[in-house]
Amino acid sequence: MRHPIRLMVCVVVILLVSITTTWAQATAQINGTVADSSGGILPGATVTATQTDTGFRREVVTDQTGSYTLTNLPTGPYRLEVALSGFHTYVRTGIVLQVNSNPVIPVTLQIGAIGETITVTSATPLVETRNPAVGQVINNEQVQALPLEGRNVASLVLLAGGAVDTGNPSSRSLTQSRGIAVAGGQQFGVQYLLDGAMHNNWYDGVNLPLPFPDAMQEFSVETSSQNAQNGVKAGGTVSVATKAGTNLFRGDVFEFARHHRFNATAPFAAISATTGERTSDGLVRNQFGGVLGGPIV
Predict the structure, then answer these.
(1) At residue 115, does pLDDT exceed 90?
(2) What's the pLDDT score for residue 13?
């Protein structure tokens, strides 16, 4: 009788964790207005954003002022489509949303049959105009190319500038926690978000362990005049987004090895009486794991 009960408890725990992970996601949004070639606003236009990797779609209709807002969009590449009777369908590709981005994309529709489409494939870069914060986004390619002490992603916060690593807050703090002060603030004055959920350690106020680099998609660091959603901590906000699955199965495995045989001996290390050579530090460290993602079948 004990085994079925244990099995049921394990299933419930897995479902709860899965639901929490699904609900908390790093998102972005797109704003803009729809007008005709003369500048007149066009209410009632259908605006659709489609993530090209997964087929995820979100659709809204412009209001009386011709404005639209597509909220809670998972990060990644998108295709934007705007349609209204009596006008050519507008399609824009090459839109890449980063964590917490909020670009404004104005759309101009040309008069014509709705069956005809005007596609924009080469457009100006997306500009953030509604977020007053100063920040930087570090993508996965940069993370993979940079050396990390212990593969701790928290160290990359220093790349955003204006950040100082004050070390581990206390002897009772977690090993992967780093007391990083941003913009002259305290080491506990930085808010950490993992896929949109709070990720601070309540004991010392710094970060909880972050995913290893292979599982991380990107992260952003914002400081200065933050908006309402990121104004919990005075120093800044670090938003981390993990990789999401696509319509194809993809994955990788890794082995991160450190061994004293690969390191130079310290010049002040003791000399062994048997070998006559300086003793090594005896470091042996192996970190291994993998990432697998794909569609739910």
Answers:
(1) no
(2) 46
